[in-house]
Amino acid sequence: MKEIEASLDELSKVVDYLNETLPSNAIVFLRGDLAAGKTTLTQAIAKAKGIEGEVTSPTFSLQKCYEGDNGENLYHYDLYRLEHEEFMQMGLFEEFEKSGWHMVEWGSDALKDFLESVGYNVITIDIEVQDNVRLYRITH
User: Fold this and answer.
1) Are 127 and 42 in contact (CB under 8 A)?
2) Is the pLDDT assigned to residue 123 strictly greater than 90?
3) Total domain count for the chain?
4) Is the pTM of this model over 0.85?
5) Which of the residues 60, 77, 82, 124 could staple to 139 if both were Cys, CB 3.0 to 4.6 A apart?
6) What residues are paired with 65 via a beta bridge?
7) Residues 131, 128: Cα–Cα separation, whole Å
């Protein structure tokens, strides 16, 4: 596990670490309370990948897809109201076969366990707000 303490202005420390350590295809579960900075971290990653335009939480659409200027894809999921069974029935599981980073907000333990059981390497980032900084606990 890697811990990185960063303010919102220092998110590049987290993004740089992820770029150095994650493979080009990765599933990343973002965990934290409301307003912990899950979408903000995804926005910083998108910017680093050369993705232009607004990156927002896919709260009502469940998934948003972005393509960076170097062809790298970024997928952003918000599964807040979606149970594991519903996710599977909707066919969203197949999305993880697509090349790129898959940022998953509010993913259930059941989904994470399933993904790991079928061979995916799932990275978890727990975000904890501490005064003016956030603590990012990154588990591979």
Assistant:
1) no
2) yes
3) 1
4) yes
5) 124
6) 75
7) 10
pLDDT for 129 beyond 90? yes
State the distance between the two ends of the chain, measured CA to CA, in whole angstroms: 7
Distance CA(88)–CA(22), nearest Å, equals 25
Residue 43 backbone phi and psi in degrees, to 5:
-65, -40
Rounded Cα distance between 18 and 22, Å, is 5
Q: Are 19 and 102 in contact (CB under 8 A)?
A: no
Tell me phi and psi for residue 81, to 5 degrees.
-105, 15
| Domain of residue 123, CATH code | 3.40.50.300
Burial 108-136 (b: 16+ CB within 10 A, else e): beebbebbeeeeeebbbbbbbeeeeebeb
Which residues share a beta bridge with 104? Answer: 29, 77
Phi, psi of 82 (to 5 degrees): -110, 120
